[in-house]
Specification:
Blueprint lengths: L4 E6 L3 H10 L5 E6 L2 H10 L4 E4 L8 H11 L4 E6 L4 H11 L3 E4 L4 H23 L18
Parallel strand pairs: 1-2, 1-3, 3-4, 4-5
Helix pairs in contact: 2-3, 3-4
Length: 150
């Protein structure tokens, strides 16, 4: 697929978001960053996002709450959890209620763990889009806006 896919990263730790940005700068994706679930929902309303990567433990809106909303409003988005919090009940809730594609534990290794997981999520989106013929024009999805330009 020649079109760049948009990935939204959500974490309340700004340093972690900057680290992700530096680690993915050479990758062929449009990158969006949000420091809260509410900010993520605002970005989702404005941009066509293909993959969502969220932390679980954030103030105000948890990652699980965000995943549930995204699953309901934007079911085509491939969802990944990035978290250092690995309590079994929380993992099961994320998997069952948010239908996540992958769970990445902190800390991770950028080249060995993180980049391959992102690549696989984009490939999963591409397979879904082909199978379901997900409309690509940004304005064709509810709440979608113009695609982000790098």
């Amino acid at each position: 697929m020649d079109e760049k896919r948009t990935i939204l990263f959500v974490d309340d730790e700004i340093r972690l978001l900057r680290s992700i940005e530096r680690g993915l700068i050479e990758q062929p994706y449009h990158l969006l960053f949000a420091e809260s679930g509410e900010q993520a929902l605002r970005l989702l309303a404005k941009h066509q996002v293909h993959v969502l990567v969220t932390d679980m433990r954030m103030p105000e809106m948890t990652g699980l709450e965000l995943l549930k909303v995204v699953k309901e409003r934007y079911p085509h988005i491939v969802r990944i959890v990035l978290s250092g919090y690995t309590q079994v009940s929380m993992l099961l809730a994320a998997i069952n209620q948010g239908e996540i594609f992958r769970f990445i534990t902190k800390p991770w290794r950028m080249e060995e763990d993180f980049i391959p997981a992102i690549r696989e999520a984009v490939e999963q989106y591409n397979r879904q889009a082909e199978r379901n013929k997900v409309p690509e024009p940004a304005g064709s999805m509810p709440g979608a806006g113009p695609e982000v330009k790098a």
